[in-house]
Write a structure and sequence with these properties.
This protein is an alpha/beta fold. 39% of the residues lie in helices and 15% in strands. The termini are far apart. It binds zinc ion (ZN) (2 copies).
């Protein structure tokens, strides 16, 4: 009786807290950025807005998760081209194609403090790739780190925000100290292939860790050429006997 009374009290308190948070911190739709009506708060998106996104479906590249133009192929053009060099990432997955509405959504997520979008993306990631995460026995989530000074100015690292939400839903811990960005780099999109590689050379540095991770999931907001993800993975692989997987919210269509 006493327990039932207590839990009733607690649920009433939770309800009030929830209501207050709806009033003071209204949740917004990641696509149109309008405040969500109370009945849509649990969905975290307007159904009509969701239908304007391009989820990654159908045949995808075995390595990076990019949709394939030709479903008889195993790898996308980029991965095929790099196959000879090898890549430190065992396998990657992505939620949406980086085209249409998601581009502005990602911009706000990254630069306009719309951290709340992470909840929606994490839920979608678990719905779509929960089985994959379990099958790969991921034991830690590592967000692509941001240069410390940059993060201080921006106030947050969007990849980390996504990682934290993913961790809440999966129970897999996040490690933000395992790898650091020790060099402030120029945005990759402004560079060609070779300059990209040089730009990222020794940009990341693994710290000493006590826990020995075996299956690491690196997460980021956008995967374009994959060179950032690979630079992070290369550094992580300095730990023996571990495997690196990758998950991004968006992926570029590639060539
Ligand atoms: Zn909307
Ligand atoms: Zn690929």
């Amino acid at each position: 009786m006493l327990m039932a009374g207590r839990s009733r009290k607690r649920s009433k308190r939770n309800y009030i807290l929830e209501m207050l948070s709806v009033i003071f911190f209204p949740k917004r739709c990641p696509v149109c950025d309008e405040i969500l009506e109370p009945e849509l708060v649990h969905r975290k998106i307007h159904p009509g807005c969701e239908s304007r996104l391009y989820p990654v479906t159908g045949a995808v590249c075995m390595r990076c998760g990019r949709p394939l133009e030709n479903s008889t192929q195993e790898f996308c053009y980029d991965c095929n081209r790099r196959k000879r060099e090898g890549t430190p990432i065992k396998q990657g997955k992505a939620l949406y194609l980086y085209q249409g509405e998601i581009k502005t959504a990602m911009y706000r997520f990254k630069y306009s403090n719309k951290r709340e979008y992470a909840g929606f993306f994490a839920e979608q990631a678990v719905r779509k790739y929960g089985d994959w995460l379990r099958a790969k026995e991921i034991d830690v989530i590592v967000p692509v780190p941001m240069y410390k000074k940059k993060q201080r100015i921006r106030g947050y690292n969007q990849a980390e925000t996504f990682a934290v939400e993913l961790s809440k839903l999966t129970g897999i811990p996040v490690d933000t100290r395992f790898i650091l960005r020790v060099k402030d780099t120029v945005p990759q999109k402004e560079l060609d292939d070779l300059k990209r590689k040089n730009n990222l050379k020794s940009a990341f540095q693994k710290t000493e860790n006590i826990v020995q991770y075996k299956h690491i999931l690196v997460v980021d907001d956008i995967y374009t050429t994959g060179s950032t993800a690979e630079a992070v993975a290369e550094e992580l692989l300095k730990t023996k006997n571990c495997q690196v997987y990758f998950l991004s919210i968006c992926i570029g269509k590639g060539m």
